[in-house]
Amino acid sequence: MKNENIPSELFDLIADKSFEELTSKERPMVEEWLTAEEYSDYRSFVTTIRQTDSERDYQLSERSWTQQSALNLNRLANRPIPAYQVAALVLLVFGLSFLLPTSSSPEKKEPVLVENTEGTPISQDSYPEDLVFNP
């Protein structure tokens, strides 16, 4: 077989017809590039590949939806993630944590002013009733 400028029609013929099925127009073009034996060898190779592809497609269609979903999730989990994407995600999460309010209630509370309690004696009388625990 000559390796220069092989016409695409030759590949189409190999895929579609056996050497015996070639017309009188097609046969001289094929014989210019290949012998009958080479043509048959290439044809059997293409036929084997097609058969293998159709069997694989059939096996893929036989998989259940859950098996296919698990396979897709496994591929997604094992996919490498570039470092710049990880860094961008970390910056985004930390940036949003500083920008978003931390309180869930929208109303703002005023600070409570505590009076100076120096000199206040520590006794039950000086504490509010809710804070006193009597066993």
Number of strand elements? 0
Shape type: rod-shaped
Low-confidence stretches: none
What's the helix-strand series?
HHHHH
Oligomer: single chain
Please state the structural category.
mainly alpha
What radius of gyration results from the CA coordinates?
A: 40 Å
Percent of residues in β-strands = under 5%
**Helical coverage, percent range:** 40-55%
Q: How many helix segments?
A: 5
Query: Quick one: biggest sheet?
Result: none
Distance between the termini: 105 Å
Give the integer mean of the pLDDT values. 76
3D architecture notes:
The chain has a domain at 8-79. The chain has helices at residues 8-16, 26-33, 36-62, 65-77, 83-99. It contains five helices and no strands. The chain crosses the membrane at residues 81-100. Residues 117-126 have a biased composition (Polar residues).
Fold blueprint:
Layout: H1 8-16, H2 26-33, H3 36-62, H4 65-77, H5 83-99
Short description:
By secondary structure, this protein is mainly alpha-helical.
Task: Tag the structure with descriptive keywords.
55% helix, rod-shaped, 135 residues, mainly alpha
